[in-house]
Amino acid sequence: MMNELQQYKIPLIFGAIGLVLAVLFVTIGFFKTLLILLLTGLGFALGLYLQRTGIIDEFFNQQ
């Protein structure tokens, strides 16, 4: 069982993402879903930037 999960890990992940997107499109609409995706991407990019520059680590080490 674990071998099958490991073999099909990427298709399962993208299938789950597709399912979540389909549910969002149906329940809240296209443009609200796009806004959620945009804000999630911006949040991810900001978090990645803060992690790479070490700003967060410096802030918490000063206190």
Automatic annotation (TrEMBL):
Keywords for this protein: Membrane, Transmembrane, Transmembrane helix
Under Pfam families, the record lists:
DUF2273
What name goes with this protein?
Small integral membrane protein
Membrane spanning residue stretches: 12-28, 34-50
Which organism encodes this protein? Enterococcus casseliflavus ATCC 12755
